[in-house]
Predict the 3D structure of the following.
Amino acid sequence: KTRFFSPDFFSVSLMKVIRRFISNAVSICGNTFISFMINCGSIKFPLEFPYDTNIDQVRKIIKKVGIAMLEDQELGDDFILPVKSQGVNEITNSVMVIRVKFTAKPGKQFVIKREAFRRITEALNAKGIYYAHRKVIVDFPEEDKIDRQDEQARKQALEAGAAAAIAMQAEEQKQQEKKARE
């Protein structure tokens, strides 16, 4: 894919690019006219799972789906690299993200992505593995801990109050002794 055109590449070399347009017209372009090239066939997409999901089992399922897709008569010829797992990409507040990638011939990658997602979902559901739903986790302390903390806080408050009362009595005695001396 070049800046101004979007044909399929027929041949690429160091000196020239031969492009074939949808209308079957062939265009030869020297490399000085091409400003950049993009590999549109490489696709990566995330799958989100709960924390307690077995990563190795998910990885094996994705690998089996990739092999099955390579053997598929309709889709197998369009692959450059098979569907495979890249492992855990990220762990967020509520999910673990596993990234999946594959490389396909230009123009076929979106059909393959849709089919890969469908097959991976079916295979995971068959094994009892489901995608995670985003959620907010709020952790409340247990009631026993709250009661213990309340008791400890009461004890500390009583001790602090008693210490303050003793300090006030000592101060009052000092003031009374001062007045008595005067």
In short: The chain has three helices and six strands. Helices lie at 55-71, 109-126, 143-181.
